[in-house]
């Protein structure tokens, strides 16, 4: 039997083991309360073995290959990564097979990718799962409780999948809200395959943003949906390490994801006709950024403070800030924010208001050029006479540099020619250098206020002479400011890559 290709659309919610048990007991009644009446769920025991090459070629290409055993039946499934702001939208190829080893012909992407290297495929991890399945009015509801086993490493698996089987998308989100109202459940963009690969790599680096694959043929609306989905995926993929360990690198990437998301909403504001909703998103994202920012401020002090007497109180303050950030990330406010963003991007009123019908009916390329030109103009204006600006005005320059850099990152794929690509990389590098230099300067300027807020004495530095320490700090800030002014001049004279 050949592989059959299909498009899978699902909304996935993550639960704690306790809440998964609670949901298992009440989900049938919950569905009936929602008008989705039916019988008891179908119980299925599953064991899914995931295959890859020794160098994980499939994972690096965004593919997963599994053989799932349910009773005596074996089903082979190949999936391609894909997400849109919390909705998982993935191509998949399925077929029934006779045993527990993959059967690969020429009609699937694994064979096309690996060629003769399919002989290297071997099991890499296993997902053991007890699944309860309800089918109601075009929605398949699957509650999964089990574990992922990768060698000697184990991780629990507790999630509910709402897969579209003919229902409208708003029905999936309505059901997700009903579930969240009864048990704490947050949107999850990690597939079981991604979780397994993460378990294999115990010290995997914090995921970075990566490149957004916009194309000139996209509508303005679809480009925003892709960008927001990309930002939310970046955020969610850093949550496990941030929640479980308070990892500083995951914290940094989660903050970058939020900043990029806020920038995207700001950059697209002229064509998105839903100001109240966008304003609410910005408020909640700013609140969340503030909770994470408190941790980051302490991390900066820990990285730069050479006062041994400050180490213990800084570590204590860091633990407190990490606890408050974790509480915010697990809060109902955050869960609903992420669910609302996912629904707004997928089926929000703004999409029906046709952003492309804005004045001039801009193509995506024209819209991107207009945004980049405007943000460049703002940065050039704010950054003039940089060396003479005060702290607050300099901070405004830094924020302008961030927005321009993120806009350039978002739209760079629209300029694929080799020469354009080189110019884009040079341009972004100059803006990034200016932004980071101003960030370092801002950290040094604000450090005394952060220390005071934490109840710490002023930093002594390597010398006990307070006057000499202050002079050394002022000299370092002056050096950074001169370097930032030079960075600005290099940016200001750089040729825009979008012209």
UniProtKB/TrEMBL annotation:
It holds the Pfam family CHAD. This is CHAD domain-containing protein. The lineage of its organism: Bacteria, Pseudomonadati, Pseudomonadota, Alphaproteobacteria, Sphingomonadales. Residues 455-476 are annotated as: Disordered. PROSITE patterns: CHAD (PS51708), CYTH (PS51707). Residues 6-203 form the CYTH domain. Residues 217-497 form the CHAD domain. Gene3D superfamilies: CHAD domain, Hypothetical Protein Pfu-838710-001. It comes from the Bacteria. It comes from Novosphingobium clariflavum. PANTHER family: INORGANIC TRIPHOSPHATASE.
């Amino acid at each position: 039997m050949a592989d059959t290709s299909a498009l899978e659309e699902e909304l996935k919610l993550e639960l704690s083991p306790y809440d998964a048990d609670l949901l298992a007991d009440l989900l049938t009644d919950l569905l009936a309360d929602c008008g989705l009446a039916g019988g008891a769920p179908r119980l299925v025991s599953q064991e899914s073995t995931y295959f890859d090459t020794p160098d994980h070629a499939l994972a690096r290409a965004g593919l997963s290959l599994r053989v799932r055993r349910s009773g005596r039946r074996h089903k082979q499934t190949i999936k391609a990564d894909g997400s849109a702001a919390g909705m998982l939208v993935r191509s998949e190829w399925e077929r029934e097979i006779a045993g527990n080893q993959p059967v690969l012909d020429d009609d699937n992407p694994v064979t096309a990718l690996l060629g003769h290297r399919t002989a290297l495929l071997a099991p890499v991890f296993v997902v053991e799962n007890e699944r309860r399945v309800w089918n109601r009015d075009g929605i398949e509801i699957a509650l999964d409780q089990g574990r992922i086993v990768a060698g000697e490493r184990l991780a629990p698996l507790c999630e509910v999948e709402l897969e579209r089987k003919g229902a409208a998308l708003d029905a999936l989100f309505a059901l997700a809200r009903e579930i969240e109202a009864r048990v704490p459940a947050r949107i999850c963009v990690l597939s079981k395959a991604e979780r397994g690969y993460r378990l294999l790599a115990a010290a995997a680096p914090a995921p970075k943003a990566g490149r957004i694959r916009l194309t000139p043929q996209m509508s303005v609306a679809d480009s925003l949906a892709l960008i927001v989905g990309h930002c939310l995926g970046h955020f969610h993929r850093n949550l496990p390490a941030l929640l479980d360990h308070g990892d500083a690198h995951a914290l940094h990437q989660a903050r970058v994801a939020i900043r990029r998301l806020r920038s995207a909403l700001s950059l697209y504001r002229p064509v998105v006709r839903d100001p109240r909703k966008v304003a609410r998103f910005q408020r909640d994202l700013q609140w969340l950024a503030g909770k994470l920012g408190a941790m980051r401020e302490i991390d900066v002090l820990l990285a730069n403070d050479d006062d041994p007497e400050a180490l213990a109180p800084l570590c204590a303050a860091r633990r407190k800030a990490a606890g408050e950030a974790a509480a915010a990330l697990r809060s109902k406010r955050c869960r609903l924010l992420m669910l609302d963003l996912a629904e707004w991007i997928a089926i929000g009123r703004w999409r029906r208001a046709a952003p492309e019908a804005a004045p001039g009916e801009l193509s995506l390329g024209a819209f991107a050029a207009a945004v980049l030109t405007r943000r460049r103009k703002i940065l050039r204006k704010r950054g003039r006479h940089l060396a003479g600006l005060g702290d607050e005005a300099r901070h405004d320059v830094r924020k302008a540099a961030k927005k321009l850099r993120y806009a350039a990152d978002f739209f760079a794929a629209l300029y694929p020619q080799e020469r354009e690509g080189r110019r884009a990389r040079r341009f972004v590098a100059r803006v990034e250098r200016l932004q980071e230099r101003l960030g370092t300067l801002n950290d040094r300027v604000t450090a005394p206020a952060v220390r005071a807020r934490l109840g710490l004495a002023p930093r002594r530095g390597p010398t006990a002479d307070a006057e000499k320490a202050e002079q050394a700090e002022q000299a370092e800030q002056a050096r950074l400011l001169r370097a930032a002014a030079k960075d600005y001049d290099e940016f200001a004279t750089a040729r825009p890559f979008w012209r």
